[in-house]
Amino acid sequence: MSILGPASPLGEHQFILRRVHSVLGLFPVGAYLIFHLATNAAIIDGVAAYQHRADQIHQLGPTTIFVLEWLFIFLPILFHGILGMVIVARGERNVVRYTYGGNVRYTLQRWTGAIAFVFILWHVFHMHGWIHADWWIEGVASRFGGKRFDPKNAYSAAVAIRASWLVVALYAVGVLVSVYHLANGIWTMGITWGVWTSPHAQRWARFPCLAFGLLLGFLGLGSLYGMVVAEPPAASTPETADFSPSSAEIVPDHRAVQAGLPPQS
């Protein structure tokens, strides 16, 4: 029995579930993808700019971030992703027989959604370790290559991504399929919600969606390139450190000056 079939409990609410699935794909999931890629793009201006963005986010505090992440990011992604995987599993594979453009985009939308969902699960584990617990982070997560991002040292994200070219390639594929899924999803959502209903309107709606996808893809790949070429933050060394005291630290001994003696620092 299909989980979304007419005889299943979920099938009875298929219309509502698909509408909620569609809305969540745009907000907050799609909105967060844009925000996340734009934030990571700060690495193009250097590690200091990227660290500044990380500090702005994490100054909210761990409790606030935990609540916001689960309420507006993780739970919507899980709902959208799991229901999307169900839709993919029950869909017909007929793109070989019907190769017209609409069917190709429909098939790509389903498969890029599945790939993006798996990529997001891996990406969250890779950077954050899924569970915010010391025993998990220090034990299981770190043992299997997770929790590589340290918000106090944002450069750690660049180190984790460029650990190997395979990781870089996985991130490139993950970014591109996520961007395609969002851009094409905006176009299909416009059809679902009756924003563009006529064939003429649907044809013209492709252009802004295509432009949006190209721009966001360029931003995502630019962020990835910035991670690969980022220089480590400059550290103070005995040769470069400035040990000269500031004027506020110098307190002249006026009695010594009056006695004709050099002031004591």
Notable characteristics:
single chain, 265 residues, mainly alpha, 3 helical TM bundles of succinate and fumarate reductases, 11 helices, 0% strand
Description:
The protein has 265 residues and is mostly helical. The protein has one domain: Fumarate reductase/succinate dehydrogenase, transmembrane subunit (3 helical TM bundles of succinate and fumarate reductases, Up-down Bundle). It is 68% helix and 0% strand. It is built from 11 helices and no strands. Helix 3 (29-40) packs parallel to helix 10 and helix 9 (165-192) runs antiparallel to helix 10 (199-229). The longest helix has 31 residues, at 199-229. The chain is globular. The termini are far apart. Mean pLDDT is 84; it is low at 236-252.
Task: Tell me briefly what this model is.
This protein is mainly alpha-helical and 265 residues long.
